[in-house]
Amino acid sequence: MPTALTSSASDGGVRRVVITGIGAVSPLGLSAAESWRNALEGRSGVAKITRFDLTDCPITIAAEVKGFDVTRAVGPFHPQGLDTTEGTVTQAANAKDARRVGRYVHYGLAAGLEAYGDSGLDAIRSRVSPGRIGVNIGAGMGGLPEIEDVHNDFLAKGYRRVTPFFIPQVIPNMASGQLSILLNLQGPNVCSVTACSSSSHAIGESFRLIQRGDADIMIAGGAESVICKLGIAGFAAMRALSARNDDPEGASRPFDRDRDGFVMGEGAAVLVLEEYEFAKRRGAKIYAELVGYGLSGDAYHMTAPAPGGEGGYRSMESALKSACLQPDQIGYINAHGTSTPTGDVEEARAIAKLFPNGPKHLHISSTKSMTGHLLGAAGAIESIFSILAIRENKIPPTMNLENLDPGCAELGLDFTAQRAVEKRMDYALSNSFGFGGTNASLIFGRV
């Protein structure tokens, strides 16, 4: 019988947490590597919406995932720890099972399986207690397209046409639940739902679960897919979306003077978080260390940020304190930067306040300029970009930043306009802020 792998004994110190696997399905690609490569090249995932008839639709652009097939081969994985065909995972879902869950779950499973495969965990599953591995795949809204479709059927054909899978299709925690079932993850099984901060909170709370010894490994991130008539209509009614229907690729323009709203995106991104000594003992590839996590509440307004980005400021400050770092040690910030008229400037002001020497040591960019806004999955894909920025010494650009907003320009910060830059850094920070005044900040470091 193989020797069991166990977590390091507690010696009173804080358990370190590292990233050993990444996976993504995004408007920029069907893997983490493809998404990252296209981000560095400044490519846009925004185009005309293809999912539904655009007649009378006020907004006709979005950042859709393209060419995705949930039934494609991804394995074989042997999460029971047995190298047999029984219980082997070869795909996220077969055609029959795919109809039982929402599209956001499809994305979450695909990204989760990519991250799991990338981590190399499957090779040692027979030596790891499944009760020490958990999952937290956050979602901001869950199965909104499925709610729309089933409601239309209900109105047209009555009760008998409501699928018995309706509830599993739409509840936000089903990506976590299905990934847990597929991979035999018997540890903490939770789902963070905090609007656009969901996946950053999922990663941060998973970090804390490992720190305090409730798990040794957490598969964490976010999944979202609400590009549907109802989703577009709701955000359009708030005047939150860009109306640049004739210029899809130029519509998302964070920090630019002429921005007019965000572009709806979709997808999923997942990280494998592991206790450092555990990862070292099994010889895992380590991308980076998660060193800091901060969170806060604006207590100000349902949708608008607090003046001066005060809530985001406290979130970043908390993350720095958690990491025991000084502001000047941060080399890159992947900003929340949604391309909304008020949010971008307030975040920039918060950054300038917390990082007074920022013009000397900071690069800032918003990759939403290319991916659009993945809502509940945004923080996770941006965490992956932050991790790879450290690993590869490259910072992705803020595209479409042609005329810097005067409120940002006066701060003297570098927003990495139009092209990627090469820069060695030891620490990167990623921000996620959501409706309801919820904020999360994550800091990753070189190992």
**Low-pLDDT segments:** none
Give the helix level as a range of percent. 25-40%
Distance between the termini: 33 Å
Fraction of residues in β-strands: 15-25%
**Form type:** globular
Structural class: alpha/beta
If you compute it from the alpha carbons, what radius of gyration comes out, rounded to the nearest whole angstrom? 21 Å
- Main sheet strand line-up: 7-6-8-9-1-10-16-15-11-12
Largest sheet: 10 strands, mixed
- Mean of residue pLDDT values: 96
Count up the helices: 15
- The count of β-strands is 16
Structure description:
The structure is a single chain. The protein has 447 residues and is of the alpha/beta class. It is 32% helix and 18% strand. The chain has helices spanning 32-40, 95-98, 103-119, 144-157, 166-170, 174-183, 198-211, 229-237, 276-281, 310-323, 343-354, 358-361, 368-371, 378-392, 406-409; strands spanning 17-25, 47-48, 61-62, 73-77, 89-91, 133-138, 189-190, 217-224, 267-275, 288-297, 332-334, 363-365, 394-395, 421-422, 427-434, 438-445. The chain has a ten-stranded mixed beta sheet with strand order 7-6-8-9-1-10-16-15-11-12, sandwiched between helices. A two-stranded antiparallel sheet has the order 2-3. A hairpin with a 3-residue loop joins strand 15 (427-434) and strand 16 (438-445). The mean pLDDT is 96.
